[in-house]
Design a protein that fits this description.
551 residues; alpha/beta; two-stranded antiparallel sheet; 21 helices; globular
Length: 551
Amino acid sequence: MIEQVELLLAEEELSERVEAAVRQLLNVVEALSADKRSLADEVDRLRKQLQQKKRDKTTRGGGSGDNIQKGDSDHSSEERRKKLPDQQRRQAQDRRTFKDLAIHATVECPVDPATLPPDAVRLADEIVVVQDIDIQPKNTQFQRQVFFSAAEGAFFRGPLPAGYDHGDFSANLRALIIALKYCGNLSEPKIGEFLKNFDVQVSRGSISNILTASASDFEPDYQDVFLAGLASTAYQQTDDTSARVRGQFWHTHILCNPFYTLYSTRPRKDRLAVLAVLQNTDDLRFRLGEETLQLLQAEFLPIPEKWQQALAAQGEMELASAEFQALLDDWFGQRNQQLRTAVEQAAAMVFYRHQTAVPIVRTLVCDDAGQFKLLTDKLALCWIHDARHYEKLAPVVKRHAEALAAFQDQYWQYYAALQDYRAGPTEAWATKLRAEFDALFATRTGYGALDDRIAKTQAKRDALLTVLDEPAVPLHNNASELGARVSARRRDVSLHSRSPRGARAMDIFTTLVQTTKKLGLSAYAYVRDRLRGSLKLPTLGQSILQAAASG
């Protein structure tokens, strides 16, 4: 029917009023079609959730259907970006590294002289390197000399060698268990099953204890990665993903750049939680004063005169979390929760801007979630996130589909131009790209849903064009999304952490493993070096700063 309408419209020129009326009616068709698709997606989601619950009931499975997402549509822009001309698409670099292999043994392979013809002449040997690994148990019995002093009432024992002085398991085995968990993504039962094949006698409780108790030894390494990571680039990328701790929904925050990835699992994902991640603390501090009051009035909500006077009466002061919460309880009690939250966030933000304990993040690359706003001087929004909104449009009217396709082609051409700009920025080019942005996102097509989407992108102009002032800033937030995917895959294997202590251990070791991966280092070798206490390898913080300095 819509095709027939299109044909009729093409047969003769319509008056301006009729054309406007037809355009509005076609947009109504699009809106009704979108509502229908949304309802169909919801019915499909509920149907799948019901089927999952029925399967759980009959198989006694542990799933609850919570992982079934609303709609199964693929809104990726990857295929559209692949259609850009070759010179405008940056090819992903091959991440494989062909390092010189260490040779542990050399075996000569002679030719049987009896098989050689009389005129055979020996040439240069052919070198063939075959990689192998030898996994076998190695149990060492130590005979510790023991002396007893009656006068002092004390025993004196011969010390165990470094790496063997921490319970029943050596540093090598403990490092292997950690690597199997966080490099191999094995569950604790599977780690036990793997080790059992090599006659290692270790209980599930011992494996769990190694994975959690060892983490406290790496707290300094975690802090070292955090500080060096913040200092290594002028921007940081962030995202979050869901997590479960003791059966409750928590959130794993990801903070990263090309040289490190840091994980921090917390009960909330609001602005205060993000500030806590940016300072690597569980005890936020707050600052009251003129700057806090100005921030409240400029960015949050109108402050009644009564509370302006109350804030001003405090003067310039810094408070610990407990002190500040007591002050807010005294002021608001259970009333004015919106104002209380605004004061709390503004005071925490002002303290962060003035503290010197950690490097301040000036530019944050993220999605458009509200908790990331106002925290830093600049916000760089992800173009890929923005493009997904266009991919979600599914027009049924031909002229609308053509308008959408044409605009998306222009969108990705502009994106490619921004990528080229990053390789060789100039002030004149930046000015030209700003003008092209204004022209592109002033487009109006008559397709209401598309025009609304274009206007929303235009409203984010400054955050989307941060790259023109800081060319090092990436155009997308894929790095932190890939970091979040690591947590999601871990969640597939181990649904939840049984305690905050376990969640903290997971944050620490996932941070170390993913950071060593970015730096091209062996996570197993690094963890083993620290557990042995030999400290022969440089710290990850040193490696991060060295990698950043070299380029």
